[in-house]
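Database export, one record per block. Field names are fixed; values are copied verbatim from the stored entry.
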Amino acid sequence: MEPPPKKTISEIGRSGLIKELNKYSSWRSEQVVKGIGDDAAVLERNETTYTLISSETFVEGVEFDLTFMPFHQIGAKVISATVSDIYAMNGHPKAVLVNLAIPNRVTVDMIEELYKGIGMACSDYQCQLSGGDLTGSHNAVIISVTVYGEVEKDLIIYNSGARTDDAICITGDLGSALAGLKILLREKSHWQESDDPVMQPDLTPWEYVVKRQLVPVARKDVINLFQEHRIIPTSMIDISQGLIHDLQRVLNSSGKGAYLYQAAFPIDLQTREVANEMEEDVDKYALYGGEDFELMFTANEKVVEALAEHFSNFSVIGKITESKELLEMQTAEGEVVTFEK
């Protein structure tokens, strides 16, 4: 009898792989309040405060491209992407550790530029660069960042608290980071095809979307506003993998469904222009484009109204439904489409 075929990662996806790996987390610590499954692990600190821990890994050629991304921008981006997980729990980052694997082709000047960006971002987010590790790599630059944060126990927000009839809200706009990446990859292709090794493309017409790709900003301002006005959404997550992927995580954790309104998606005009130029569907940028690092949260009508009194840079794009893990969307034409899990 032949053994059963092995499952591939592409078959089960990122979320499926994480679920498989969670089987091996068998021993439990009384200090760990929340382990695998949210944006950050939650540890008991004292009677009033939790410690939050999250980590991200960034690989050259996958998460960043040295052709069009200077080292100081890489440094800033890896910190923004990692502290965003702490903000998604309604917390504040306090310290980061940076582990770095570098090949011989990388110079000391390049590493100094990387850490300039890391230092500037740490200052912006008020968290201290507190150590890490340095090792070699045969080919790619690899950066791993671990962030430690804290949150008051009565303010913590998980991605599992969405309730039926909650509004689904998004800060900022969607799809612009992907639009910026599309422009950068197009210009890289033009450079590779040209005979000019120092060609400098004019990115001025696409400045907004390019910045959203190269130097994203985690939404510290939103968390400060939430806490200043004691606004506590029922669930929250940051948009790192794309709207559909991250919303599915909320629905799976909460045991709920969702109904989206395509016409309500916040999409910047420049993102629309990029999609038009690429002859692509801009709504797919919004639905599947990652790295926007905006916050998606759910809240009841009263909380949304209270937030609107102090903050306008958010959109209501749908509502939570009782239909367990069913994700539907009403298109601009009035049709209803269903997204598979």
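Remark 1: The chain has a mean pLDDT of 93.
Remark 2: The first strand starts at residue 32 and ends at 34.
End of record.
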